[in-house]
């Protein structure tokens, strides 16, 4: 962050108060559509775990940026993605959220055009052959699909940059977590009455932590100081060698994981003492997912924008298969803590959204600690082709 006109040098913070995004960007349906087109349809978006498509002919459908998407496993075991739209007259092809094709064919429910699992048009139902029609010119419309750590991402934009490891440097810090081998032990879905950006803004600051998250602030003492990391403290260099949790950002003394009692149940294979000591590590792939890594499990939180004022969270808790099979494993101690924190955040997000509807409120103000909120908002401006402030 050196030499940044708006970010402090020497610690993480804004050097001056900055205006937040225009309030109508959180409520206006036309602006929401613009964000779907210019952000969501151009980004690599997290969809599901790879093992949710377990073997040839398995499929799942999604809504990405308001568009119907079909992801499948082809005969060779490779993942492929298509717009879930028939090339004849545009019907939806697969109506179910998930399933397995009985044959290696995708048959349109309207007039029975049929495609193989690579997307090639193979049959045109009862229609008579007509001169000048070449099946080869009407394959399913493809989208790009990529996998990282067993997480499946897709991108609708053929011109977009190639898939890159999500989170950049963050991914290097979780290199020892056996992500691809983990299994979903619990899932949870929640609709929030807030714009998707409100969710990310809340994620990107801890000013709310002491007030909104008493239990989490007790478990992660630095959160109780309303900051996210050691370097957020303007005086951090004076305490750079201090390893105590409220300076270092680790869990309170004796705690091992994010759970109701702060204890871990075993540990994931491959983690080092340094990994375990971290308490939590995040990989963040805006706009669609963050993944929290702990000693004994991983939690992914997928974000789907439903409308200007509605967002859906789809959360998976991932575990080692042996741990899940252990009769003494108490998954509730982990899941209950995550839900407690997410419901606290969800309530805060809904409060934020409700207030944004006041007509004379034009925009908010970002204070020193909200540097990550600022960076997120400037990223949004850049994606929309609006002038950035940095
Ligand atoms: S729309 Fe699919 S076969 Fe007619
Ligand atoms: Fe929070």
Which spans have pLDDT < 50 for at least 5 consecutive residues? none
Q: CATH superfamily name of the largest domain?
A: Naphthalene 1,2-dioxygenase Alpha Subunit, Chain A, domain 1
Any idea what the CATH architecture of the largest domain is? Alpha-Beta Complex
Main-sheet strand order equals 2-11-10-5-4-3-6
Q: Sketch the major β-sheet.
A: 7 strands, antiparallel
- Percent range for helical residues? 10-25%
Distinct ligands, ions and cofactors found in the model? FE2/S2 (inorganic) cluster, fe (ii) ion
Query: Which percent range describes the beta-strand content?
Result: 25-35%
- What fold name stands as the CATH topology of the largest domain? Naphthalene 1,2-dioxygenase Alpha Subunit, Chain A, domain 1
Overall pLDDT confidence: 96
Radius of gyration over C-alpha positions, nearest whole angstrom: 23 Å
H/E topology pattern: EHEEEEEEEEEEHEHHHHHEEEEHHEH
CATH class (first level) name of the largest domain: Alpha Beta
Total number of beta strands: 17
Number of helices: 10
Structural class: alpha+beta
Write down the domain tally.
2
Distance linking N and C termini: 11 Å
């Amino acid at each position: 962050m050196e030499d940044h006109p708006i970010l402090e040098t020497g610690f993480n913070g804004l050097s001056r108060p900055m205006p937040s995004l225009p309030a109508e960007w959180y409520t206006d349906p036309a602006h929401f559509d613009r964000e779907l087109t210019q952000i969501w349809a151009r980004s690599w978006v997290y969809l599901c775990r790879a093992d949710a498509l377990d073997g040839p002919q398995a499929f799942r459908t999604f809504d990405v940026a308001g568009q119907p998407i079909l992801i499948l496993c082809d005969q060779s075991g490779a993942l492929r993605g298509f717009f879930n739209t028939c090339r004849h007259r545009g019907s939806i092809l697969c109506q179910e959220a998930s399933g397995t094709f009985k044959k290696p064919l995708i048959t349109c429910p309207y007039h029975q055009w049929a495609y193989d699992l690579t997307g090639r048009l193979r049959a045109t139902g009862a229609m008579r052959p007509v001169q000048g029609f070449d099946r080869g010119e009407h394959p399913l419309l493809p989208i790009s699909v990529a996998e990282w750590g067993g997480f499946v991402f897709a991108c609708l934009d053929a011109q977009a940059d190639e898939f890159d490891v999500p989170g950049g440097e963050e991914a290097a810090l979780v290199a020892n977590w056996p992500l691809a081998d983990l299994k979903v032990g619990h899932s949870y879905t929640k609709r929030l009455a807030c714009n998707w950006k409100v969710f990310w803004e809340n994620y990107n600051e801890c000013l709310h932590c002491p007030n909104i998250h008493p239990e989490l602030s007790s478990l992660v003492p630095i959160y109780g100081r309303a900051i996210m990391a050691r370097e957020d403290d303007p005086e951090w260099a004076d305490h750079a060698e201090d390893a105590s949790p409220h300076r270092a950002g680790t869990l309170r003394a004796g705690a091992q994981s994010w759970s109701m009692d702060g204890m871990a149940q075993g540990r994931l294979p491959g983690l080092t003492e340094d990994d375990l000591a971290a308490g939590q590590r995040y990989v963040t792939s805006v706009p669609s997912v963050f993944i929290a890594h702990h000693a004994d499990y991983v939690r992914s939180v997928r974000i789907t924008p439903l409308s200007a004022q509605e967002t859906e969270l789809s959360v998976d808790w991932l575990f080692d298969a042996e741990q899940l099979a252990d009769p003494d494993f108490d998954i509730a101690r982990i899941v209950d803590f995550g839900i407690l924190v997410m419901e606290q955040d969800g309530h805060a997000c809904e409060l934020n959204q409700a207030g944004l509807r006041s007509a004379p409120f034009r925009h908010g103000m970002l204070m020193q600690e909200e540097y990550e909120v600022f960076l997120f908002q400037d990223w949004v401006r850049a994606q929309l082709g609006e002038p950035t402030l940095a």
